[in-house]
Design goal:
Pfam families: GTP_cyclohydro2 (PF00925). The chain is an alpha/beta fold. Helix content is 39%, strand content 22%. The protein is built from 15 helices and 13 strands.
Length: 363
């Protein structure tokens, strides 16, 4: 048995490297792709990439390409040819829409038509999984194993990376302890850790719910602003409190607290989206300008935790039909949708209307 990291562990290393501005190498046979996160690239590494020769490209999602009026010949992504005289500031401006309205990038943005886009597509997914903006600087390099070893870089086989990034990481229980709560003195908190080195997730169990009958359950995505500091821009904090209160009143339930802040884009990107909303864009438009999908969350995590805890059917506290579909698709029966309509404010009325109109929430 090798002491070295497997592909899942290499992905975790690669995430950390990209967040620090360190390149990684995607290995696809005789060729490799040197990848740097657009958000964290610095002048020294940009210069080092230039010194390697070749034609660097800037890979962005089709959503971001639409904002820049660049052609996404690859369908879901675009590979922009990097101009010869630009530095990190240009790369970061292409990735980050913060100044789109005040200092718009004029282009043109010529895009590649030829070559295999799969490595760039995987590189963008890797950046997303690191909670970074979905944009990368990429350069083809020969002999990727030798290149990575010479520069001390993390190297991942492309196919293995694709599999690891598309599969739901298995969840393993770490520990659990009794935690008396305001809504119920019979509270218990479980901690689950994924194999892929990403964020831990939590289950709050109220009472002693039977595993033989559908349990009152909620999949609650972490919201620092709404849950902890009382933000009025969303209904998350009110939903969290109301769900726990209903479980306490019934004497049993389980609330999954999933660390998927900002619909899965992370707190920093959520704050970027908030800034775009202040410029007049709705929540979906803001996500698209950043290069993200409407919703990047992975509710397979919730299904995995429920199965690990021994539950097979739920009465789901939700206004989001996508959660129901995902639970049912991954082995958790949903026998009832329990509405959770709380927390509407003057400040979040438009946000809730957008969720209903564009994301199908039942509000």
């Amino acid at each position: 048995m090798s002491l070295g990291p497997n592909s899942t562990e290499q992905i975790a290393r690669a995430r950390a490297d990209l967040r620090m501005g360190v390149p990684v190498v995607l290995d696809h046979g005789a060729q490799g792709l040197l990848v740097l996160a657009a958000e964290t690239i610095g002048p020294a590494r940009m210069q080092a990439v230039r010194a390697l020769g070749g034609q660097p490209v800037m890979a962005i999602t089709a959503h971001r390409a639409a904002t820049l009026r660049a052609r996404p010949y690859d369908g879901d992504i675009a590979r922009l040819i990097l101009p010869p005289d630009v530095g990190p500031a240009w790369v970061q401006s292409v990735a980050d829409p913060a100044d789109d309205l005040t200092n718009p990038l004029l282009g043109p943005f010529p895009s590649l038509r030829d070559g295999d886009p799969a490595p760039c597509r995987t590189a963008i997914r890797l950046a997303k999984s690191a909670r970074l903006l979905p944009a990368v600087l990429a350069l083809d390099v020969p002999a990727p194993e030798t290149f990575a070893a010479r520069h001390g870089l993390t190297r991942i086989a492309l196919t293995e990376a694709e599999i690891a990034l598309s599969a739901a990481s298995p969840m393993h229980p770490v520990t659990a302890a009794r935690v008396p709560l305001k809504v119920s003195k019979a509270g218990r908190v479980h901690v689950f850790r994924p194999e892929d080195g990403s964020e831990e997730h939590y289950a709050v169990e109220i009472g002693a719910p039977s595993r033989g009958v559908p349990v009152l359950a909620r999949l609650h995505s972490a919201c620092f602003t709404g849950d902890l500091i009382g933000s009025l821009k969303c209904d998350c904090g009110a939903q969290l409190k109301a769900a726990l209160a209903q479980m306490g009143a019934e004497g049993a339930g389980v609330l999954l607290y999933l660390n998927q802040e900002g619909r899965g884009i992370g707190l920093a990107n959520k704050m970027r989206a908030y800034s775009l909303q202040d410029q007049g864009f709705d929540t979906v438009e803001a996500n698209h300008r950043l290069g993200f999908e409407d919703d990047e969350r992975d509710f397979r995590i919730g299904a995995g935790i429920l199965r690990e805890m021994g539950f097979s059917a739920v009465r789901l506290l939700t206004n989001n039909p996508a959660k129901i579909r995902m639970m049912q698709a991954h082995g958790i029966g949903v026998v009832e949708r329990v509405p959770l309509r709380v927390g509407k404010t003057c400040e979040n009325a438009e946000y809730l209307a957008t969720k209903a109109a564009k994301s199908g929430h039942l509000l």
